[in-house]
Amino acid sequence: MTDRLVIALAQLNPTVGAVAANLAKARQAHAAAREAGADLVLYPELYIAGYPPEDLVLRASFVTACREAVEDLARDTAQGPAILIGLPWRDGKKLHNAVALLNQGKIETLRFKHDLPNYGVFDEKRVFDAGPAPGPISFKGVRLGVPICEDIWTEESCETLAETGAEILLVPNGSPFEQNKDDTRLNLVVARVTETGLPLAYLNQIGGQDELVFDGASFVLNADRTLALQMPMFEEALAVTEWIRGAQGWRMNKGEIARLPEKEEETWLACVLGLKDYVEKNRFPGVVLGLSGGIDSAVVAAMAVDALGADRVHCVMLPYAYTSRDSLVDAEACAEALGVRYDVVPIKEPVEGFLSALKPLFDGRNIDTTEENIQSRSRGVILMAISNKFGSMVLTTGNKSEMSVGYATLYGDMNGGFNPIKDVYKTQVYRLARWRNANRPAGLAGPAGTIIPERIITKAPTAELRENQTDQDTLPPYDALDDILSGLVEEELPVADIVKRGHTEALVRRVQHMLYVAEYKRRQAAPGVKITRRNFGRDRRYPIVNGFRDRS
Ligand SMILES: Nc1ncnc2c1ncn2[C@@H]1O[C@H](COP(=O)(O)OP(=O)(O)OC[C@H]2O[C@@H]([n+]3cccc(C(=O)O)c3)[C@H](O)[C@@H]2O)[C@@H](O)[C@H]1O
Ligand SMILES: Nc1ncnc2c1ncn2[C@@H]1O[C@H](COP(=O)(O)OP(=O)(O)OP(=O)(O)O)[C@@H](O)[C@H]1O
Ligand SMILES: NC(=O)CC[C@H](N)C(=O)O
Fold it and tell me: What keywords were assigned to this record (predicted)?
C-alpha cells in the first residue's frame, strides 16, 4: 500500500480508426509520464479507437486491432508506469466500452461502461452492451474508481464505487464541446464529489471528429470541492499530478490552473479546431471557398486561415451582374488582410450559357428564383472544378439561421465538404467577426488586427442574386429570426411560448413552417462543427415528410 501516487492525465487528440497512430501517440505520452516519475497514466474514453467510433466497432477486425494495440502497449510498458486506457472489448457475445488497467506487461483488469448514452449525438446502445455497476480497481493497494464518461452523469455508478471502497475517482471522457459545457461538467462533478466525499479527476480528449469537436478542459476536484487542476481547452497536454493519502483520504497537491476561454473565444476556437482536424485527418492539402464580400464567407475564410495558415486557403470571387463594387472591394480587402490566394472568376459566361440552353424551354415564362439559382449553381460548379483540379476541399458557408429556414441553394452555395459555421446563428456570426478583429489568441495561424473589414460587418446582408436584394426581403430581421429559431430548435418550445417572448404568432408559425420544409436541404448539407446544445445532424433528427404543425 502506498500513501503517494503520481498520476499523469493525457489530454490527447486521437483519430477515430487510426489505431496505430493513436498507439504511437499513447507511447509518446507514456514516455513523458515515465520521465516525470508517474505511477499511472490515464487516457481518455475509448482512446485507442478514437471517440466516437460508431459502427466501426461492429467490425470484428477493428475490435481485434484495438485489443492487439493495447496488448502491445502493455507488453512494451512493463517497466511502468501502469496505464488506464479505453478500448472496445469483446466479451463472448457482448461488446463493451471498456477501460483496461495495463500493469506489469499485461492487461490486468477491465471495467465496462455502465451507463451508455443514447440521446443527442450519442448512440452507444446501438453498438455497445452495458456493463454491471462498476467496482473499484486495486492499484498499488489503492482502490481506484474508474467510471466512464456518462457513468458520472447520474448518481448510481459513483455511489456504488464509493460504497465498495473507492478512494479516488478517475474518469476517462469523450465529451463533445457545446457552448458553456465546462460549467455543466463542473456542476456535475461537484455533485458527484459531494455525494461520495471522493476526489475526482475528469479527463477529456480534444480534437475534431466529423461534426463533433472535443475541448479537453480536463480538471481535478479534491474532496473538499476545491479545484486542484485545470487543463487548457482545445490543446493537447499532459498533466503530472501528485496525490497524497492523509487522514481525510486522498488529496491532489495543487497543480496548474489554465485560463478557460469563454463566449466568442471558445466558439471561435471550437470552429477552428473542428475545421482543422476535418481537413488534416482527411489529408486535404487545403481548402477553397467563394468569397462574396459578405460576412459569412469572410468569417469562414478567417477561421480557415486560423486553422490551416494562409498558404492553404484559396478564396475566389465569382462576380455576376448583381455583384456590387463594394462587394468586389471588400472581398479583395479581406483576402489581402488574411494573406490568402485570391482569384476573380466572373460567372457571366456560364450563367448565360445555361440561360441560352434553357431559352427554348423557358420561353414565355417569368424570371424567378430559377435564374437566381443558376448564378449560385454556376459558382458551385466552378468551386468544385477548382477542388477537383487542385485537391483542395470546398468550404460551404451557410450559417445556422440560413440552414434552419432553407435560405441556400441546393447544389449551389450548399456545395462543399465542410461548414465551420453551420451551427452558428447569424447574430453570433457578427459577434464572432468583431471578437476576432479585436483578438488573436496564441496558437492561431492567422494574423492579428482587422482581418474582416469593418464594412463587411456593418452593411446589410444580401445574396446579390438580383437588383437591390437584401436578406430581409425574404427573412425577418435576424435578431427576431434567431430568437424564434432557438426557441424551436434548441428549446423545442411550443409556438405559443415563443409568441410570449414578443413575436407575432403569424411570424412564429411562418418560421416553424420554413424550418420544417427545409429538412430535405439539411439532409443533403455538408457536416459542420456542433457548438450548440442541438445541432443539425446527429442531435436533431426530424422527419423530412412531416405533416405536423403546432395548434394555436
Ligand atoms: N421535400 C423535398 N424533398 C426533395 N426535394 C425537394 C423537397 N422540397 C423541394 N425540393 C426540391 O428542391 C429544389 C428547390 O430548392 P433550391 O433549388 O435550393 O431552390 P429554392 O429553395 O427555391 O431557392 C434558393 C433560396 O436560397 C436563397 N439564397 C439565400 C442566400 C444565398 C443563396 C445563394 O444561392 O447564394 C441563396 C435564395 O434567395 C432562394 O430563396 C427543387 O428542385 C424542389 O423540387
Ligand atoms: N460573388 C460571389 N463570389 C464568390 N462567392 C460567392 C459570391 N456570391 C456568393 N458566394 C458564395 O455563396 C455563399 C452564399 O452567399 P450569399 O452572398 O449569397 O449569402 P450570405 O449567406 O449572405 O453569405 P455572405 O455573407 O458570405 O455573402 C457565400 O458565402 C459565398 O461563399
Ligand atoms: N461519451 C459519453 O458518455 C458522453 C456523454 C456525456 N453526457 C457528455 O456529453 O459528456
Answer: Ligase
